User: Fold this.
Amino acid sequence: MKRLTLLAAALLALLAGCGGDDNEGTQAAGTTTAASASCDKGQLQLVNPGQLTVGTDNPAFPPWFDGGTPKGSSWEINDPSTGKGFESAVAYAVAQKLGFAKNEVKWVVVPFNLSFKPGTKNFDFDINQVSVTEERDRAVDFSDSYYDVNQALVALNGTTLANATSLDDLKEARLGAQIGTTSLGYIQDTIQPEKDPRVYDTSNDVVAALNAKQIDGIVVDLPTAFFLVGAEEVKNGTVVGQFENVSGEQEHFGMLFEEGNTLRDCVNDALAELKSAGTLDQIQQEWLSEKASAPVLK
Amino acid sequence: MAVGKGERSGPEVERGSRSSRILGGGGGGRSLAIATVSSIVFFGAIALVVVNSPGWPAVKESFFYWPEFRESLPDIAQAFKTNVKLFLVAEVFILIFALVLAILRGLPGPAFFPLRLVSTVYTDVFRGIPTILLIYMLGFGIPALALQGVPTSEFFWGVVALVLVYSAYVAEVYRAGIESIHPSQEAAARSLGLSRSQALRYVVVPQAVRRVVPPLLNDFIGLQKDTALVALLGLVEAFRQSQIEVAGSFNFTPYLATALLFLLLTIPLTRFTDWLIARNRRRELARA
Assistant:
């Protein structure tokens, strides 16, 4: 994945004639500054002119979205337009960098499966905890990382799995994950338990299965793990620990664009500025601050 | 069966093979030629419209991507075994349970009213509930009760839900078969000294079942496809496996692979059903 994005970034840089080749660590891909003229608000490649259309799935779950739903809102759990929650805050910060006022950002419902269907998209970018992989990058375009994510394990207090301290302790567990997540891939490729993992349609179903003890544990991204336990979605549950990334590759979330959308480069510029100014860190501290507190299962 | 399909000697054969002749028309080389040309024009026109549509390259890349197909097929075929297990186990129970229901419903006299009532209400209820809801309610609901000794297995509850729903359908098929047997058959059997249950066992049910084999196979095919609904409970069967592949690659081709696997199973069965229907008709006409 990284190689491909790096290559793509290098190519873009060449095309733009300003080979800004400042690879800072692992996520430098695409931080090259495209010709700034094309990032003028009036020049952007947008679905609806003058407005930034951002997609995410409904319901919008914490901690990615927060602030509840104002009266009359068609969103469930949280309305992204509150600006609260990590992904909402990131989207508005990017929008601001691109020159959009808050009321020029419009949110549309984009179920995960529809975010990568062929054809034209009804959003400028989709921000929905989508992990970037090389395979997926073939079908769509991704921004640089806006969040480096670790997978984590949730289990019920008092069970054997709740006391796990290493990957070996998970071998005999029946684990579950939500479909479409990289969590499943992590179970299959890295944990490799003896029992087949269970795969569910929605995060509600995963939780129902854990509560019904049909599975011993849930593998899910760390912030969601804390939400599931903290909000009592999983009754009497605990975040057992988080996992290290496989083979040193840092899994990360990226915003999803229609293949070839030039807006991507402008969003990458905005992200780079937010990173260097420390704004992204602040947003992360505000909404996803628990990260440090889960032990690492090796 | 004595007369082959292609021969057109007697009127019985003509009528008997009606359902299996899809060419239509009077026969001979001319109708074959017309059918061929018309097919080429018809399907060719559709193909042209699809291939020349502006979105075709994107759709082709998304739904008909050979490397993805090749890569996902082995995993999906592996998961398809779960579907096969599901419908084979379920079908055994369905065939037995549904026959019991159908017989209960056919019991005569006021004394058996409660049994008839139970059978009727059962059929009404379970034929009316969407299978997907029943799978959800049983599969997540009952294990959540945390009762001692009650299984939590997704496979188990998936099979239970399928058996409950399909038994209701199949019981109606059996009932239609039983009711289609002329009352004189039972009367004749009774007059030979068979008891009511013996007449049912040796005379009515065997004839009825033979008559309803085609619709039974029809429901069996429906059952095969509905095994995909058990994925809801987290069980990784062919459809769920293809969803996993799709989510991993953002490419929809694995769905095509799954569809083909199902077709590979259902098409031969459908043809077999057609053949059975044709054979039954020939036999009955030959007897008449």
In short: Chain B has eleven helices and no strands. The CA atoms of residues 90 and 178 of chain B lie 23 Å apart. The interface with chain A takes residues 55, 58-59, 61-63, 140, 143-144, 146, 152, 154, 231-236, 240, 243-244, 246-252 of chain B (CB under 8 Å). The radius of gyration of chain B is 24 Å.
